[in-house]
Amino acid sequence: MAASPTRDDFDRYMTPNYSPQQAIPVRGEGSRLWDQADKEYIDFAGGIAVNALGHCHPALVGALTAQANKLWHLSNVYTNEPALALAKQMVERTFADKAYFCSSGGEANEAAFKLARRWAFDNFGEKKHKIISFRQAFHGRTLFTVSVGGQPKYSEGFGPIPGGIVHAEFNDLDSVRTLIDDDTCAIVVEPIQGEGGVTPATPEFMQGLRELCDRHQALLVVDEVQSGVGRSGKLYAYMHYGVTPDILTTAKALGGGFPVGAMLTTDRVAPSLAVGTHGSTYGGNALACAVGLAALTTIDTPEVLAGVERRHALFREHLEVINRKYGVFKEIRGMGLLIGAEMSDDFEGRARDILPLALEQGLMILVAGPNVLRMAPSLVIPEADIQEGMARLELAIGQLVDPS
């Protein structure tokens, strides 16, 4: 019988662009996981905001197995029923008129940025190509999306990067006003900066961006790869702001763990993505879309979305209790079940140190940069699991504060 893979096998056989924790989970149920040694963990990481219904949710397992016995893949030479059903539901539940499917958030953003430039080219000419994004933004790992993202560490060493991209300050409308002009084709924004530190946009900022786009005939592109599909307490976070995007990107929770992404847009903009302008071999895959439809319709219910708000309050309450005891956090922020706890001055840059300590206590958690502890659990995580997970987090933070 072959030996089970070990963490050393990662270093031996995988490229070194990741540095995973030592435990190797092998099975999951709900918001709990078990590793090779059958040690149990509570999951506050959610696959980085992906496992929105936890692990092995019956609705997703049922959709996947039913579709697996019918049809897996056709390519886009043909369409398929799951893709059409998912597109219909996404359009009916959002601002959009049209949907484009792909396999990841980076691909969704690549399509969105290409569409924005092509729309401007079709309607105004080649000079209107400038994209405004924001410092500390994250939009993916392709060369185009990493260039639009406002974190130079992700594009360093991969130059020359695409031109025509400028970066303003998040939540600072004046910084946008100094950059925008009639050559701007799009403003690209996350309603909640995720990788940049779990920072929500203010209502005034989002509304101001919409007004500036309208004034300069530019498109508002809203990146909801991390904040979308119930994560904020609404189906999409833009719905909190009273602002309608021209293009929206979504992935992560859309498949509940199965790789799927989408770009949504309007009938005004969609014609610029004409036949031959863009494509994806796996986009609209029948398996992915069947699971995506099950995830979307399970999450977009009053019960689940109201439960997100209730769980947010529980997370915040427990984090504040821990902070009163240890003083490790400067600020607790976020929306719904995308929550960030910024480290205090005495523990600046030490958020990542908590991950292995939490793992020892049986808790999986995330960071958003070196200074923010991030939580993105299942949207239906049982309240008892929140309480137990926070008890484990408190033990881990106790070790951080006093290693003896």
TrEMBL record:
<dbReference type="InterPro" id="IPR049704">
    <property type="entry name" value="Aminotrans_3_PPA_site"/>
</dbReference>
<dbReference type="GO" id="GO:0030170">
    <property type="term" value="F:pyridoxal phosphate binding"/>
</dbReference>
<dbReference type="InterPro" id="IPR005814">
    <property type="entry name" value="Aminotrans_3"/>
</dbReference>
<dbReference type="InterPro" id="IPR015422">
    <property type="entry name" value="PyrdxlP-dep_Trfase_small"/>
</dbReference>
<keyword id="KW-0028">Amino-acid biosynthesis</keyword>
<comment type="pathway">
    <text>Amino-acid biosynthesis; L-arginine biosynthesis; N(2)-acetyl-L-ornithine from L-glutamate: step 4/4.</text>
</comment>
<feature type="modified residue" description="N6-(pyridoxal phosphate)lysine">
    <location>
        <position position="252"/>
    </location>
</feature>
<keyword id="KW-0032">Aminotransferase</keyword>
<dbReference type="GO" id="GO:0005737">
    <property type="term" value="C:cytoplasm"/>
</dbReference>
<feature type="binding site">
    <location>
        <begin position="223"/>
        <end position="226"/>
    </location>
    <ligand>
        <name>pyridoxal 5'-phosphate</name>
    </ligand>
</feature>
<protein>
    <recommendedName>
        <fullName>Acetylornithine aminotransferase</fullName>
        <ecNumber>2.6.1.11</ecNumber>
    </recommendedName>
</protein>
<dbReference type="InterPro" id="IPR017652">
    <property type="entry name" value="Ac/SucOrn_transaminase_bac"/>
</dbReference>
<dbReference type="InterPro" id="IPR015424">
    <property type="entry name" value="PyrdxlP-dep_Trfase"/>
</dbReference>
<dbReference type="GO" id="GO:0006526">
    <property type="term" value="P:L-arginine biosynthetic process"/>
</dbReference>
<feature type="binding site">
    <location>
        <position position="138"/>
    </location>
    <ligand>
        <name>pyridoxal 5'-phosphate</name>
    </ligand>
</feature>
<dbReference type="GO" id="GO:0042802">
    <property type="term" value="F:identical protein binding"/>
</dbReference>
<feature type="binding site">
    <location>
        <position position="281"/>
    </location>
    <ligand>
        <name>pyridoxal 5'-phosphate</name>
    </ligand>
</feature>
<keyword id="KW-0663">Pyridoxal phosphate</keyword>
<keyword id="KW-0808">Transferase</keyword>
<comment type="similarity">
    <text>Belongs to the class-III pyridoxal-phosphate-dependent aminotransferase family. ArgD subfamily.</text>
</comment>
<keyword id="KW-0963">Cytoplasm</keyword>
<feature type="binding site">
    <location>
        <position position="280"/>
    </location>
    <ligand>
        <name>N(2)-acetyl-L-ornithine</name>
    </ligand>
</feature>
<dbReference type="InterPro" id="IPR004636">
    <property type="entry name" value="AcOrn/SuccOrn_fam"/>
</dbReference>
<keyword id="KW-0055">Arginine biosynthesis</keyword>
<comment type="subunit">
    <text>Homodimer.</text>
</comment>
<feature type="binding site">
    <location>
        <position position="141"/>
    </location>
    <ligand>
        <name>N(2)-acetyl-L-ornithine</name>
    </ligand>
</feature>
<dbReference type="InterPro" id="IPR015421">
    <property type="entry name" value="PyrdxlP-dep_Trfase_major"/>
</dbReference>
<dbReference type="Pfam" id="PF00202">
    <property type="entry name" value="Aminotran_3"/>
</dbReference>
<dbReference type="InterPro" id="IPR050103">
    <property type="entry name" value="Class-III_PLP-dep_AT"/>
</dbReference>
<dbReference type="GO" id="GO:0003992">
    <property type="term" value="F:N2-acetyl-L-ornithine:2-oxoglutarate 5-aminotransferase activity"/>
</dbReference>
